[in-house]
């Protein structure tokens, strides 16, 4: 057994609370936490668990502290190669002009390995120990991403991207091919874990988004996810141009017959031609489904996401550039929807969940400020209920991510039975990006 002594910043099950466990000990056996106790119980724990209270204990004192490894619930690994490029384009144009041409280069394994190994090492430096990745449509380079993660010791949920329409010929697959290749990827990726006590790589069924996936492809992928017990990731109601494009596809396919419409309609209008309802009808909305963005969500759609047990990946930085809106995060949390945070590289230019945490707080204040500026709240109540605190944002980056990936019993906080998946923060390390004050308020 290895024992770690120091300060542990520990998110509780209730997202409003983070515990500061000062001078505590965490006992770890084969990667799993056996106990979390005050250091005053060191001798007692040593007797119970049979470890040496000196040589088996690593001590981290001073200003150092542990946080649970952060979980990025939405990141496009190949896009790291063009981070920060052309963020002034609307989403659909950005995809065509920059994203698909870059991603298609990942048929070259050497190029893929170069980008992926740099990305994973950067993410680990920034405290991200688990990523929910989009790779590309290529099986071999998607497996290369898995091998890079394994080498670096990062937990990686990886999607070989499936798309069969509205993309260049060289960057899409026939429907049947995309389904077969996805199944082959699932089997091959799981093979990579052989010999590990705790698997690190897990394949994820990944219909890119409705504009590039036919209904046949999506229902085929839903069947694969059920057969192989895979998580699902896709994008939903991300931007105004994306929502409009999905509606136009729906009109073109004339799938909305009166007798097929079961949505409430009414003031919000028909929801059948929008992402959430379409995904649900195709069997893609379920526990373990992570929907990136969801900025233009309607309340009925949030209720459906909650009912199905799916989650939203909130990507505040990327949303500023591509979504023409801000996710009403506070409302989503109040409605009981599961939410994790995503960097959305390269829609988001920062491969860091610390930035995502900051932007989560800032974007919630943007919504609040707009309400105040427009006079919708005010007078004695100079505060709306839209703000999200840094505590909640850190909670979303850890426990929220764990819940989104159906791993809240294994990740996201320090508790017996969970994996010891931790980041040691040392504010006084050489070159530290911030300063520490003695006796600061
Ligand atoms: Zn309808
Ligand atoms: Zn994305």
TrEMBL record:
* Protein name as catalogued: Guanine deaminase-like protein
Task: List the cofactors.
Answer: Zn(2+)
- Amidohydrolase-related domain segment(s): 67-429
Which Pfam family, just one, is annotated for this protein?
Amidohydro_1
GO MF entry, a single one: guanine deaminase activity
- PANTHER family in the record, alphabetically? GUANINE DEAMINASE
GO CC field: cytosol
Kindly list the biological process annotations in GO that this record carries: guanine metabolic process
- Answer whether the UniProt record assigns the keyword NAD to this protein: no
The organism is Paratrimastix pyriformis ATCC50562
Which residue stretches, if any, does this entry annotate as coiled coil? Answer: none
Q: What's in the keyword line of the UniProt record?
A: Hydrolase, Metal-binding, Zinc
């Amino acid at each position: 057994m290895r024992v770690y002594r120091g300060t542990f910043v520990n998110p509780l099950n209730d997202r409003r609370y983070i515990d500061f466990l000062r001078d505590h000990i965490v006992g770890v056996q084969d990667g799993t936490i056996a106990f979390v106790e005050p250091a005053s119980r060191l001798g007692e724990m040593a007797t119970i668990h049979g470890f040496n209270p000196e040589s088996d204990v690593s001590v981290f004192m001073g200003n150092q502290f542990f946080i649970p490894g952060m979980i990025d619930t939405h990141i496009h690994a190949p896009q790291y190669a063009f981070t920060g490029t052309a963020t002034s384009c609307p989403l659909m144009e950005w995809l065509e002009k920059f994203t698909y041409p870059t991603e298609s280069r990942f048929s070259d394994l050497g190029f893929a390995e170069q980008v992926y190994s740099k990305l994973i090492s950067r993410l680990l430096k920034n405290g991200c120990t688990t990523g929910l990745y989009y790779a590309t449509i290529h099986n071999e380079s998607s497996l290369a991403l898995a091998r890079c993660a394994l080498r670096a010791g990062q937990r990686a949920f990886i999607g070989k991207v499936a798309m069969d329409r509205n993309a260049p010929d060289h960057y899409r697959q026939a429907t049947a091919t995309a389904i077969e290749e996805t199944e082959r990827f699932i089997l091959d990726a799981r093979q990579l874990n052989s010999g590990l006590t705790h698997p690190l790589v897990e394949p994820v069924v990944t219909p890119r988004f409705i504009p590039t996936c036919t209904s046949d492809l999506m229902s085929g992928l839903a069947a694969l996810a059920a057969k192989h017990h895979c998580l699902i990731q896709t994008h939903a109601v991300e931007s105004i141009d994306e929502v409009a494009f999905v509606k136009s596809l729906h009109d073109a396919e004339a799938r909305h017959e009166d007798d097929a419409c079961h949505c409430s309609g009414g003031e919000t209008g028909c929801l059948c031609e929008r992402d959430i309802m379409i995904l649900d009808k195709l069997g893609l909305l379920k526990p373990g489904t992570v929907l990136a963005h969801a900025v233009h969500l309607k309340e009925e759609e949030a209720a459906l996401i909650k009912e199905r047990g799916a989650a939203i990946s909130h990507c505040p930085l990327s949303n500023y550039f591509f979504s023409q809106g801000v996710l009403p995060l506070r409302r989503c949390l109040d409605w009981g929807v599961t939410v994790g945070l995503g960097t959305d590289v390269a829609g988001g230019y920062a491969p860091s969940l610390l930035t995502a945490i900051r932007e989560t707080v800032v974007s919630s204040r943007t919504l609040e400020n707009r309400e105040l500026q427009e006079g919708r709240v005010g007078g004695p109540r100079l505060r709306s209920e839209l703000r999200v605190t840094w505590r909640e944002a850190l909670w979303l980056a850890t426990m929220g991510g764990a819940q989104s990936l159906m791993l809240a019993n294994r990740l996201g906080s320090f508790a017996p039975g969970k994996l010891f998946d931790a980041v040691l923060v040392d504010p006084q390390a050489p070159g530290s990006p911030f300063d520490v004050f003695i006796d600061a308020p």
